[in-house]
Amino acid sequence: MNYMLDLTPENRILHQQADSLRKDFTDLYEQWNYMLTYEESALNALYLNEIGGQQFEAHRLTTELAHLKHKIQLAQAYFNRNVQPDWATIDQQLAHQLAVYQRKLKEEAARLAEAKQYLRSGFLNEAEGFQLKQAYRQLVRALHPDLNPDQTEADRELFLKVQAAYQLCDLPALNGLLLMLGKDTPSTAITTSDLTAEVRMLSEKVVALQKKIDQLGAKFPFMYREKLSDETWVAAEKEKLNQQITDLEKEITEKTNYLELLKTWTPESLH
């Protein structure tokens, strides 16, 4: 929308403030959308690829240990009654729990495989990525509902197409949508009070969007953004997980040996 405005010194300052805030909102919105559309998947894949293998193994062993402990607990109930444990019944009681454990492990294994495939897949090169962001910023500024509250239904539909093209990294489609913005729009008179209200509204939206970005950045996987590029941190995390795996393996061996010993027990051995 083109505005007709009496550019008094006050209005000129307000107009500059509105333009600056529109740019800030556009940049922040592009950042927020990039985080959700691309960076979240990339960081999650990188996290899983770097230390996910050790986490999966630790989780698998933790699951195995929990199964052993539960089996010992069920057997102990028989011992407390001075009755020979019915191992077949115990195994049946644990069958559902074991199936749930195995399904979760299978899901985790699939996530690891997907992460490795994601990191092997192709991405836009640096130049294409820059062009994609630039085109997207221009389209957001021209079509985002928060920046254009009086937009037409056609513009709202066009913005949905922009979102879809951006998510698909479809640079030609975004460039084509940019060409569609070359149409002339009627001029509308705007008063100083209107411009003041717009500056206030834009300021509030910029602050709210920055807050959303900050909150998102504090969550997984964004909280590991810098750490994942720190080889020392990654190595330390792997070392901690490897130690956890060693401890779990040791306890599993102990519990397995204890369980085998329990299987030799008979009620008569108490007399």
What is the overall pLDDT average? Answer: 85
List the strand order in the largest sheet: 1-2
What series of H and E elements makes up the topology?
A: EHHHHHEHH
In percent, how much strand structure appears in the residues? under 5%
Uncertain stretches: none
Number of helices: 7
How many individual domains?
A: 1
User: Which structural class do you get from the secondary structure elements?
Assistant: mainly alpha
Silhouette: elongated
The Cα radius of gyration reads: 30 Å
The major pleated sheet works out as: 2 strands, parallel
Alpha-carbon distance between the two ends: 96 Å
Helix content: over 70%
Number of strands: 2
Task: Explain the layout of strands and helices.
Layout: E1 2-4, H1 9-80, H2 87-120, H3 126-143, H4 153-167, H5 171-179, E2 187-189, H6 192-217, H7 231-262
Parallel strand pairs: 1-2
Structure description:
- The protein is mainly alpha-helical.
- The protein has one domain.
- The protein contains 7 helices and 2 strands, in the order βαααααβαα.
- A two-stranded parallel ribbon has the order 1-2.
- α1 runs parallel beside α6, α3 packs parallel to α5 and α4 runs antiparallel to α5.
Characteristics of this structure?
271 residues, mainly alpha, two-stranded parallel sheet
